[in-house]
Amino acid sequence: MNEHLNRGVNEDVHDGVNDGHPEQRGTPVGRRVFLGTLGLGALGVVAAPDLQRGLEAFLGGAADNDPTGLTGLLPNGGGFRYYSVASSVPRKNANTYRLEIDGLVDHPTTYTLADLKALPQTRLVRDVQCVTGWRVPDTPFEGVRLSRLLDAAGVRPTARAVRFTCFDGTYTESLTLDQARRADVLVALRMQDKDLGHSHGGPVRLYVAPMYFYKSAKWLSGITVTDEVRPGYWEERGYDVDAWVGRSNGRDDEPTS
User: Fold this and answer.
1) How far apart, in whole angstroms, are the C-alpha atoms of residue 35 and residue 1?
2) Rounded percentage of the chain residues whose pLDDT exceeds 70
3) Which of 127, 85, 92, 89 lies closest to 202, judged by CA?
4) Residues 108-120 pLDDT 10s
5) Residue 145: count of CB within 10 angstroms of its CB
6) pTM of the complete model
7) Which domains are assigned to the chain?
């Protein structure tokens, strides 16, 4: 098995810190458990469309009710795979969710889910490409452009990058400031024309359309503007920091945008 497949267990996975509480790190899931799920991945590739939809619905529901998080390793038949690098992830709803923006900004801000929904929404339809090889075509995402939140916060002249943390207590990601300001980078609230469910990183996740999906951090809880790029969870383990689809990580996939 190649290195990309081993490390890629975190796409449509992600990480972070708890909203305003001390960081609570989940127990990382073992490599052996992950390897044992690959046969189900093959099933998802070859299954007929009706079976795919049924398997996706079943695994999504199971993941939402799995206190261990191990269901999150199971690949579903619709193309997406439910992953987490932590053994369990707390659930957030409209009452408990908070997104904090801080760091090198003039106006640190905390958004509720209602606050984010009240802002102008952007809809993008792009292919989603995982660095492990699977691809889901024509996937709609909707949310607030990250650039809008950065502008509202008042980014300082010394800023060069953005760091993202998530409420699973483990995962982090990063973008340069120029990358973060792209029109195809969203703080996403909806996917596939539905509110983001827990297993897909809801209620809020990052969506970076032109990059491999490990950049689109699930369970987003923090956006910190920094003076330099700080490599994220998988980048510390060998993935490219600049993760352009087809131009990084030794892959030649077709671009997604």
Assistant:
1) 9
2) 67
3) 92
4) 999 999 999 999 9
5) 21
6) 0.74
7) 3-237 (3.90.420.10)
